[in-house]
DNA sequence: AACGTGATCTTA
DNA sequence: AAGATCACGTTA
């Protein structure tokens, strides 16, 4: 398994990432919740909710690059969130990592997240996931399959999880591009964006 | 339902 | 230059 296995569409990549093992600075975790994101209107997967929708810019350029890289962005001024870039070089698509089960390095994860959080909450939510694994904006663009990289990914079997709408997006709010492995308390509850149009009125 | 928080983007 | 937006998380 290598970055070539991610040269696929974002929905397939999302399924491939369910159950994958993510390692970040002393913590390894199993990915249990992801969201697929596409690209501009004239690309293969038009997606108004994607950062890449309006073409490459300073923030999102990694999304347009080769697969197997990490795309990080800062959200709401506070949190760092992480995506795995998929599709061919030059085509924008990525999968947001929303939740994971911490397998090893629990003490490290707890020291980063604070002793008060429950074990199932260590990497619950995209911001918390990055916090638990020590992922920062400096990791933007890093090669997840380079053994020297501080953040690495090991792909497993293709898993088909449950699917539903993405959390918190105001565009394409009904599109069922969030996927998760059922039965894990790490998976976030669904929250529709208050700015999204009523269900059924969005593409 | 509200809000803290700041980078990024759109609009002018 | 100004204003809106936001792939969040916590508290209520």
From TrEMBL:
Family matches, as NCBIfam families: 3mg (TIGR00567), PRK00802.1-3 (NF002003)
The protein's name: Putative 3-methyladenine DNA glycosylase
Documented EC number(s): 3.2.2.-
Q: Which residues does the annotated region (Disordered) include?
A: 184-203
Q: Which GO terms describe its molecular function?
A: alkylbase DNA N-glycosylase activity; DNA binding
Keywords per UniProt: DNA damage, DNA repair, Hydrolase
Q: Which HAMAP family match?
A: 3MGH
Please verify whether the record's keywords include Ligase: no
Q: Which organism is it from?
A: Mycolicibacterium parafortuitum (Mycobacterium parafortuitum)
- Lineage of producing organism: Bacteria, Bacillati, Actinomycetota, Actinomycetes, Mycobacteriales
Q: Does the keyword Hydrolase apply?
A: yes
Q: What family is reported?
A: Belongs to the DNA glycosylase MPG family.
Q: InterPro entries from the entry?
A: Formyl_transferase-like_C_sf (IPR011034), MPG (IPR003180), MPG_sf (IPR036995)
